[in-house]
Amino acid sequence: MHDENVSTFFSYLEAEDAALTFLQNSYRHLDIPDAETRSYQNISAFLAYLEHGKSYYAYGKNAPLLMKPVLLFYGMTHFMKASLLLTRPAYPESTADLAHGLSTRKRKKRDYRFILDEVMLQQRGLFPYFSRYVCKRDIPAVKKVSMGDMLRLIPELQDLLSLQQEKRSLVEAGRKKDIIVLPDCLLDDFQYTKRRFLAFLQSYSYQATEQAPLSLQQPDSLWQAAGPLFYNPLSQQYYFIRQSYWSGFHECMAHYALSYNLSMICRYEAEWWMDLLHINRRNEYPLIMRFLEITADKFPLLIGSYMLKHFQDIKKAR
Fold first, then answer.
1. Separation CA 70–CA 63 (nearest Å)
2. 0.70 exceeded by the pTM?
3. What are phi and psi for residue 209, nearest 5 degrees?
4. Among 12, 226, 276, 284, which is most buried by a count of CB atoms within 10 Å?
């Protein structure tokens, strides 16, 4: 993995001429008409999104839990918009694209549990737009997703989920130097033949190196290990999704769904939020607190990895 350079790359983009050249080269690489004009039109917004994103995350990491979800969510949306401007110079293409792209229940029931709560997926808005053009994932056919399902897509939460005897959606993969060895159970979990599973891996641009056992070449960036192959930078452990049903969900999509709902609860369900923080600390409490710690570091790293990979791909193509 080469993501140790992400922080340096963000610093590099603080210079307006460097960021402008990046936008111009990106638009030319994608054969977008009037690349130079479009890049000049977007450079101020691009730099503002990056600066706001970094600032909100800096404040959010040190903020009291009372307001932490809101600040982290605002930082997340700004980073997402910056990443979109790299390849979508006309963003937002309509006012509908400015919406969150998710919705949630207005009022929580008395016996409310966060892990069972659901958010509805919308056809327009930031969530589907970002999913389609940055994550390269179509919106799943499902109309709603539960918070439990989203938490299970965060690799850093797997050990805590296991301790709580919660269901896990990821399974550990082995590692031999630069080779990732996938567990044999995946063929049964997916109900795929080996040939079909290899085609599935290829559709996500993973390079299979062996068929017995199933093995992959280690990805070069964190962005390439954010679904269906997942990576925990803290433990340096790889995981793979256990159900084809969730294979189309990028890790960034899970971070966004969780952060969106937590920010809404923090703002509009103050009684439940205060109860969770200070009075009735259910099993969900450590999962939520740990997620907030993880996303404060990992989401900027994922976006930085995406931008750095795009930058390197452009250089290779020139």
1. 10
2. yes
3. -110, -30
4. 226
Domain span at residue 33 reads 3-160+250-317
Q: Is the pLDDT of residue 2 over 60?
A: no
Flag whether pLDDT at 105 surpasses 80. no
**Single-letter amino acid code for the residue at 208:** A
Is the pLDDT assigned to residue 134 strictly greater than 80?
yes
Q: Say if CB 10 and CB 53 are below 8 A apart.
A: no
**Beta-carbon contacts of residue 253 (< 8 Å; ≥ 6 apart):** 127, 130, 131, 135, 137
Q: Is 142 in the same domain as 50?
A: yes
Reference 137, options 129, 145, 148, 149; nearest CA is: 129
As a whole number, the mean pLDDT across the chain is 92
Inter-residue contact 89 to 41 (CB < 8 Å)? yes
Q: Which amino acid is at 242?
A: R
Domain boundary among 242, 272, 305: 242
Please give the tally of structural domains in the chain. 2
Return the SS3 of 250.
coil
Estimate to the nearest angstrom the gap between the alpha carbon of 253 and the chain centroid. 5
Which pLDDT tens digit goes with each residue over 196-209?
999 999 999 998 88
Q: Long-range CB contacts (< 8 A, 24+ apart) of 5-12?
A: 5/308, 6/300, 6/301, 6/304, 6/305, 6/308, 7/304, 9/304, 9/307, 9/308, 9/311, 10/50, 10/54, 10/300, 10/304
Nearest one of 262, 254, 219 to 238, comparing CA atoms? 219
| 75-104 per-position pLDDT tens digit | 999 999 999 999 999 999 999 999 999 998
Residue 1 has pLDDT above 60, yes or no: no
Backbone angles phi, psi at 240, to 5 degrees: -135, 145
Q: What distance lies between CA 77 and its chain's CA centroid?
A: 11
111 & 181 share domain: no
Please state, for a pLDDT cut of 90, what percent of the chain lies above it.
Answer: 73
Q: Answer for the pair 92, 143: CB distance below 8 angstroms, yes or no.
A: no
